[in-house]
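Might you be able to consider the sequence and fold that I enclose below?
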Amino acid sequence: MATSSRASVCQSPRRLRQSAINGVTEFWDICPDQFTQEQLEAYFSSLVEPHS
C-alpha cells in the first residue's frame, strides 16, 4: 500500500508540469518549444495579478 501512495506523490509534480504547459500553450496558442522567456513571464504574471 505504501508503494501506491508513493506513486501518487511522484506523479503529482508531473501533473503540475503538464498542467502548466497546457495552460501556457492555450494562452499563447503555440507549441511549447516556441515559447520565449518574455511570453512565459507574461503568462505567469497574468496568473499572479488577479491574486495580488
